[in-house]
Design brief:
The protein is mainly alpha-helical and 112 residues long. The chain has 3 helices and 2 strands, in the order ααββα. Strands 1-2 form a two-stranded antiparallel ribbon. It is extended, with a radius of gyration of 17 Å.
């Protein structure tokens, strides 16, 4: 979340009515938003997916050093906080851009 972003959290306990209210609110905000043409520049990087997360959950993996993970499929969520958004989700391919981003988090002890 931030000045140009919103974070909406839902759960399996949210009913249909609440989800429809959230969708209506997001549509309302989106229809009244003024885009300055910079949204593409600020778009988050999304790694390539090898398989959907539910499929990746069925695989057994191993822990490996970050430098050896290039090209491998992630089987766990990798989060940084803040903001609490995953850098990788199960099923995505670990590429050099992700390794670079994770390398930047280590000095500030976001991950151990």
């Amino acid at each position: 979340a931030g000045a140009a972003h919103a974070l909406a959290m839902t759960s399996v306990f949210d009913g249909r009515e609440n989800l429809l209210r959230l969708a209506a609110a997001l549509n309302s905000v989106d229809s009244s938003a003024q885009y300055g043409g910079t949204q593409a520049q600020n778009a988050p990087y999304i790694p390539k997916s090898a398989m959907p997360p539910f499929e990746a959950a069925g695989y057994k993996g191993e822990s490996t050093a970050l430098r050896r993970a290039l090209g491998r499929v992630c089987l766990e969520y990798i989060w940084t906080y803040p903001p609490g958004c995953p850098l990788l989700v199960p099923g995505e391919i670990i590429d050099s851009r992700i390794i670079e981003a994770l390398g930047e988090t280590r000095p500030i002890e976001v991950m151990k």
